[in-house]
Structures are given as structure tokens and as C-alpha cells.
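Please check our next protein.
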Amino acid sequence: MRPKVLEQIQARLFYTEDLIIRDFDLYGKPAVLVYIETLCDTDKLESSLFKQWFRTKSDSFHNLTIDELITSAVVFPCTNPEEAVKAVLDGKALVHCEETWYSLNAEQNNVRSIHEPNNENSIIGERSGFIENLNVNINLIRNRASSSQLKVRYLNVGKYSAHKVAILWQDGVADAQIVQKVTERVKGLNTGMEVHPGRLQKELLKEEKRSLFPQVFGTERIDMATNLIMRGRIAVLCEQSSTCLIVPVSFYTFLRSIDSVLMEDKAAIVLQTLRATGLILSLYICSLYIAVVSFHHEILPSQMAISIKASLENVPYSPIVEAVLMIVIFQLIAEATIRLPSQIAQMVGVAGGIIISEALVKIGFVSNVYIVIVALSVIGTFLIPTYQVRILTLILQLLFVFAAWIVGFYGITLLTAACMVHFFSLEPFGVPYYSPIRSKAK
């Protein structure tokens, strides 16, 4: 007769057909093995249970208890159906004998190899990144940090199923109040959906000031994450994700790459200056063109003004139309090259940009001058190392273009002042957003 708890387990799993139930005899006593075949490794079950069981039948060891028989590294009793269902969904197998349920490790290890993230390439630094396995990711951080002060706190979040989330920080360097605040916010995530970095990011910023500026830094690089943790930041990792979330951060963090972190100060300053130049180009060059063409052409030398005016004679639309059109087209090409395989992406990026730009100039949609302007803007955008700031740059770029189209330089100046006021008012987790490095991180 099968135990009643087994019926409850089947009911809670909605009688799924990949739930395997096997009856066997253990020293004359009925026993049951329960596992989900799509989550468990049958080789582990054979080596930790059945091979050991057959060996004891032929040797001098008889009448071993079930917890003595199982050779799995972790064996613990399940006292209620909820614990049993959770163990089964975690990839463990259940064994029932003598009115007691035991779970043993039998998970499938489908782990990809460790390699450098494609979206965070660097010239110097490690060639390894996070993978979709929480234990492996923590192991990679611990190996690189080699610090006894590195602390790990596990949390189980979710409404219908428990998703494992880990919080890592350097004790004595990270602010204890911020650690507590991050822990409470992650615990507050009560969702029936899958737990992933995007959902965790929303929960972390739930009580912060709403802003277009990114306030949670995400990285797949082990060296970057470890460097920030050792400087006092707090990392949040979740199972089945290769993205590590870092808080608190400043805007300065989003403009740094691992190259500038590992280089000497002078070389790092040069790289940071180039990235700042790229950010300014991507934000202002298109809007400055619109303002000059529409309102302030007198600031240009006469010969240049005549040349630009001549290029605009065959364009039937307002400068704002060609500006928005070209920005959208170049962003479409950029997104297409990101999603396509690398062998095709280069051809699509170069051929698409050249062919489309030349065709638009010939049919009179845009001017030659603006093709150069928007190309410089796109190049400046790609100098920014983080994708989050690139999205922010695109939004602000369009806002500046419309402001310049309405009132010229005055619109650009007013919008810049509004952005700066908002920028300096941000304090995610109580840390000023404009500060380059926290005081405790030094």
C-alpha cells in the first residue's frame, strides 16, 4: 500500500507525467522512489542508491537504515508534503521507507562552459564570465576575491515556488544598513512569475526615486563584479541567470570598463576622457545641428553656412524629420547587428549603413551633412561601455533634438539644466549618484 503523502505530492504536482514512482523492496520492507525524470540524473540515482543497495545484499552489511544506505552527499528527511514537493522540484529524489521520507541529491548538471561575455569584451582582463548556475558563479567570485570577509546570504523568493537568490558583500567594507535594505527589498519580491535580474532590479528600486538614469549596475564579468564587491558594493545573483546586479552605484560606474580599472591612472584617464567625449557627442551633436540649421546659422562661418544651405535645398522636409528618421534607422541597424550572428552582423552593419544612407541622400530625404552628424553620434554611443547608458543616451538624444527644434539653443540649455538638477538629486540607497567613488571603497 502506497503512503498517503505520495498522493498529496502527485496532487500538488498536478499529476505530471514526468513524475516517476518506482516501488522496490528494502530488506523485506516496501519502499518507494519518487523523482522527476526531466530534472534528475538517473546515473546518480543508480550510484547513490541502487548499486549500494545491491552491494549490501551480497556483502556482510545487512539491515542498514535508509539514511545509512544512501551514499549521496546530502540526505535529509522531509516532514511534510510541502518540503517533499520543493525537494522534487529542486531536482532531488525522494525515498520512502518505514514511514519516513528522505531526499537525496540527483540533479542534472546542465552547465555551459565559462567564457568571456560577448557584450562586455575587453583588451585586458580575464576571459571568463558568469554562467547560469548560482553555485558556480559564487565559486568564481570567491576564487578571485580570496577573502575571509566575503559574506554570502541566501534568500528564497517567489509566490508559488522558491527561487534562490544570493546576496554577496565584503563585511567591514560594505555599509551594513545598505546590506539590510537590499535584503529586505529582495525578500519583498512576491511574484508568481520567474525571478530574473530585471524583476529583481525593479524590486531593488521600488522605494527609490523614479528616473531615466540607471541606478542598478548589471555585469556578466567576474573581474568587474569582484572589483566592485571589494570596493564596498553589494552583489545580487539569482539562479538561472548570468547577470550580476551591483548596488549602490554612481553614474561614474556605468562609464568604466575593466580596461580602465586594470590600467594605470594616466591610461585610465585617457579612456575615460574618450568615453565622456563619446557621451557628449551622442547627446548633443544632432540637437546642435538642428538648432544651428533652424535658428542660429549666423554662428557658422559664411562659407560653411552656404555649403550646409546648399545641401538642404533638395530636402523637402523639416530638419527634425531627417534627424529623427536617421537616428531611428541607425538604431535599427545597430539592434539588427546585435541580434544577428557575428559573421553576418558586420556585413549588415556596414552594407546597410552605407547603402541606406546613400539612397536617402539621392532621393532627397536627408542631407549629406547630416549623414556625417548622425554617424558621429552613433560612434559616440558605441564608446559607452554599458548597454543601460546607451538606452538612456538614445532617449535623451531624441529629447534634445525636439528641444532644439522648438527653441534652438535655449531648448538645449533648459533641458540640460533640468537633467542636471534631476541628476544631482538622485541618491540611490542613500549614496549620491554623482560621486565617483564611495568613501569606504578607497
